[in-house]
């Protein structure tokens, strides 16, 4: 009886905290008389270009975090978990960067820049590395963002770099085929338990995103894939996991949870069953770290 009562107390406290959190976020939404945004995409998010994230904030607060930064092109907002991801401008506008994720909205901030109803920084525009902050006297100031991002577009730093795989099914299926810049060639291992392929980027990079183009046939072989990154092959960290199975020629995009990850090696491993590990192309986008 005492155990049941204790569980009831714990559940009641958790419910009160959830209600309090929702009311806080609702209150934040009510601080402006006019605030209406039209999502550019519903139940979808831009993948591979997020450079900052925020937890437990309202949609309006997410909007403000984006519009106050000149480098922010758009944002993803999760209405279920109250999370915000602000994005750099994509290299190109492509549907391949928009996975369907229930609960998200995607908003391009450019629609609202220069509009006094939404943009607090019209009178005091900030430079790329600054954030526009509103003061209590309704004036604005520009402060350092504190998140250093190179201005240039990230490049594919895996192109024609040194690669190895657990085995090779033939001379025309070598690991190097996965980074040769061509999608009509491919790498392939023999049938192996825990097959892997790794790429040595040659130096340390800030990894922005990893893209995989699946082979144009037998695409279903790509499944249960661990993508790990690290400074040394004997000390790798999880970046992303792909359940699959893949489809022929599929273009997959992954972003490590920590976003800008310092790494030299990228490794792909199928962790479930015996399989042929194969790739049409592996692309790793990042910036070289200058020490």
Explained architecture:
With 291 residues, the protein is mainly beta. The chain has two domains: 36-144, Hepatocyte Growth Factor, CATH 3.50.4.10; 155-288, Galactose-binding domain-like (Jelly Rolls). 13% of the residues lie in helices and 37% in strands. The chain is built from two helices and 19 strands. It has helices spanning 2-29, 59-67, and strands at 41-44, 50-54, 74-78, 83-87, 100-108, 130-134, 140-144, 155-156, 162-165, 187-188, 192-193, 196-213, 225-232, 235-242, 251-254, 261-270, 274-275, 278-279, 281-288. Strands 8, 9, 12, 13, 14, 15, 16 and 19 form an eight-stranded antiparallel beta sheet that branches. A hairpin with a 4-residue loop joins β3 (74-78) and β4. The chain is globular. The model is unreliable at 22-34 (pLDDT under 50).
In short:
Helix content is 13%, strand content 37%. By secondary structure, the protein is mainly beta. Strands 8, 9, 12, 13, 14, 15, 16 and 19 form an 8-stranded antiparallel β-sheet that branches.
